[in-house]
Design a protein that fits this description.
The protein is globular, with a radius of gyration of 22 Å. The protein folds into two domains: 176 residues, Aspartate Aminotransferase, domain 1 (Alpha-Beta Complex); 263 residues, Type I PLP-dependent aspartate aminotransferase-like (Major domain) (Aspartate Aminotransferase, domain 2, 3-Layer(aba) Sandwich). A hairpin with a 4-residue loop joins strand 2 and strand 3. By secondary structure, it is α/β, with parallel strands linked by helices. It has 16 helices and 14 strands. It has a seven-stranded mixed beta sheet, sandwiched between helices. Bound molecules: pyridoxal-5'-phosphate. Pyridoxal-5'-phosphate (PLP) binds next to helix 7.
C-alpha cells in the first residue's frame, strides 16, 4: 500500500466555506485573465484560483479545500508536493540549476534508474522539458532511424502543440486550429478502435482489430508515397476520453509494423509512469515499442520529459542532438529520479491496480443506475464516464458534461472536463475511501443533471 504522508492534509475534505469560485478567486481571476489569454475550457468553466496543494488536496485562495481528481493535468501523480520530490528539486535548486547537457551526478543516477525500470530494449535516452518537445524529438529520431518521412497518427489522439505534434492530431479544435489550415506534409490520420464507438466491427458486433489493420495497409498503399517512418499513437487516448483499445489491437499493430518496416512510436506522456498500473501502458499488452515518450507524471510536477528508443537504434540518436536549454537540468533529473523511486518505495503500481479495480467496479454500477451514462472506461487511475442523451442512439450529451463538471467542482471536486466524457486522473496515492468520495460527488452531480433534464 502507498505510504500515508498525504493523509493529514486530506482530513476533512472537501471543505467548502464560500460560494465557489469564492470572492478572492473571482477578483484574482478577473484581474489576471484581462491579460493572460487563451485559458482552457477547464478554467473558463470554473475559474477558481489555487494557492496550495498537498497530496490529494488542493486549497484555493478563499480557503476552500478540494479533493483532487485531476493531478494538475495528469502531472502531479504522486500527490501535490510529494516531500521526496520537492526536497530533491530544492536540493539542486540550491546547488546547480543548469549544466547544459553535461553529465551530472543526478543525471547519471536517473539514466541508470530509467534503464532499470523500462523494458529491457528501451535504453537510449534524451531528456526534454515538455511533452511536445519529446514528441518532436521522437519524430526526428524516427526519421534518423529509417530515413523515411511520412507519419501516421490516429483520430482523437493528442500529442502536444509543436508543429509536428499538432500535425499528428485533429486540427479543427480551438487552439490547435490556430496553427494553420493544414497539417505538415507527410502527416496522415486514420481511425483507431474505440470499443464504445467502433468503426469496424465483426458480424457479432464486437470490434474488429484486423479490419483496422487492413484499412491501414490499404491506406498506406493508396494514400502515401510509401515512405512511412512510424505510426504515432497514444497507448490509451487521454484527451480523447480515457479510451483503451481492445487487447488485441497493439499486438496486431506491432506485428504489422514489424512486417512493413514501420516504427511504432508510443506516446506515453499522459498514460505512462504508473497511471494505468504498469510503468508503461503498453506493458498491458506486452508490446515493446521502438520509440517512447514520457512526460507529465515523469517529474511529478517538475517539467521534465523523455524520449527513449530501442538499443538497436541508439546510434540514430547521435544524429539528433539532445542539447536543449532546460532538458535534463539537475532539478529536472532529481524530480524524475525521486518520482521513480517513490513509485517503487510506496508500491504505487500495486495501489493503482487495487484501487483501480474499485474504481472500475463502482463505475460499472453507476452505469447500470444512470440513464445518461452510456459507457464507463479505464484501467487503473486513467478513467472516463461517457454521457449520452440516449443509451440506444449514443448521442453525446455535451451540455450534461459541462453541468456535471461545474456541479461536482462546487461540491469540492477539482477535476477535468472533456465535453461529454468526464475524465478523471486522481493522484496514484489515493485510497478507496477518497476514491469513493470522489465518485459519490460525481454520481450526485449526474443525478441532479438527470433530474433537471427530466430523466
Ligand atoms: C499524449 C500526450 N502527448 C504529448 C502531450 C504534450 O505535452 P506538453 O503539454 O507537456 O507539451 C500531451 C499533453 O497533454 C499528451 O497528452
Amino acid at each position: 500500500m502507498a505510504a500515508d504522508w498525504w493523509k493529514a492534509s486530506a482530513e476533512g475534505i472537501p471543505s467548502i466555506k464560500t460560494e465557489v469560485p469564492g470572492p478572492k478567486s473571482q477578483a484574482m481571476h478577473e484581474k489576471t485573465s484581462r491579460h493572460y489569454r487563451g485559458l482552457s475550457g477547464q478554467v473558463k468553466l470554473f475559474p477558481v484560483c489555487f494557492e496550495e496543494g498537498s497530496g490529494i488536496t488542493l486549497t484555493d485562495v478563499d480557503g476552500n479545500r478540494f479533493l483532487d481528481f485531476s493531478s494538475g493535468i495528469y502531472v502531479t501523480s504522486l500527490g501535490h508536493c510529494h516531500p521526496k520530490v520537492s526536497e530533491a528539486v530544492a536540493h539542486w535548486a540550491k546547488k546547480l540549476m543548469n549544466a547544459h547537457d553535461f553529465t551530472t551526478p543526478v543525471k547519471e543516477k536517473l539514466i541508470e534508474k530509467m534503464v532499470d525500470v523500462l523494458p529491457a530494449d528501451l535504453n537510449a535516452i534524451q531528456l526534454y522539458s515538455d511533452g511536445a518537445s519529446a514528441v518532436e524529438a521522437a519524430i526526428r529520431a524516427a526519421r534518423a532511424i529509417n530515413g523515411k518521412h511520412e507519419f501516421i497518427s490516429c483520430f482523437r489522439d493528442f500529442h502536444g502543440k509543436s508543429m509536428a505534434a499538432v500535425s499528428c492530431a485533429q486540427m479543427v479544435r480551438g487552439d490547435v486550429y490556430s496553427y494553420g489550415p493544414t497539417r505538415a506534409p507527410g502527416f496522415y490520420m486514420v481511425p483507431r478502435p474505440n470499443p464504445y464507438r467502433p468503426t469496424f466491427t465483426k458480424a457479432d458486433g464486437t470490434i474488429d482489430s484486423d479490419a483496422y489493420i487492413r484499412f491501414y495497409d490499404e491506406f498506406i498503399q493508396e494514400g502515401t508515397v510509401g515512405n512511412v517512418s512510424a505510426f504515432v499513437l497514444e497507448p490509451v487516448q487521454g484527451w480523447g476520453g480515457s479510451i483503451f483499445p481492445p487487447d488485441d489491437f497493439f499486438p496486431k499493430l506491432r506485428d504489422y509494423c514489424n512486417n512493413k518496416g514501420i516504427l511504432l512510436l508510443d506516446d506515453e506522456v499522459l498514460a505512462g509512469m504508473g497511471r494505468t498500473g504498469e510503468w508503461l501502458a503498453m506493458d498491458h499488452w506486452n508490446v515493446v515499442p521502438d520509440i517512447v515518450t514520457l512526460g507529465k507524471s515523469f517529474g511529478n510536477g517538475f517539467p521534465v520529459t523523455a524520449m527513449v528508443v530501442k538499443e538497436e537504434y541508439a546510434e540514430a540518436l547521435d544524429k539528433i542532438s539532445a542539447s536543449s536549454s532546460y532538458g535534463g537540468n539537475p532539478m529536472a533529473c532529481a524530480a524524475a529520479l525521486a518520482s521513480i523511486e517513490v513509485i517503487e518505495e510506496e508500491q504505487i503500481l500495486q495501489n493503482v491496480r487495487t484501487v483501480g479495480q474499485y474504481f472500475s467496479k463502482r463505475m460499472q454500477k453507476m452505469k447500470e443506475d444512470h440513464p445518461i451514462i452510456g459507457d464507463v472506461k479505464g484501467t487503473g487511475f486513467l478513467l472516463g464516464i461517457e454521457l449520452v442523451k440516449d443509451k440506444q442512439t449514443k448521442e453525446p450529451f455535451t451540455e450534461a458534461g459541462k453541468l456535471v463538471y461545474q456541479k461536482a467542482f462546487r461540491k469540492g471536486l477539482a477535476w477535468i472536463p472533456a465535453g461529454h466524457i468526464l475524465r478523471m486522473s486522481p493522484p496514484l496515492i489515493m485510497d478507496e475511501h477518497y476514491a469513493e468520495m470522489g465518485l459519490s460527488i460525481i454520481e450526485e452531480s449526474i443525478a441532479e443533471v438527470e433530474k433537471e433534464h427530466g430523466y
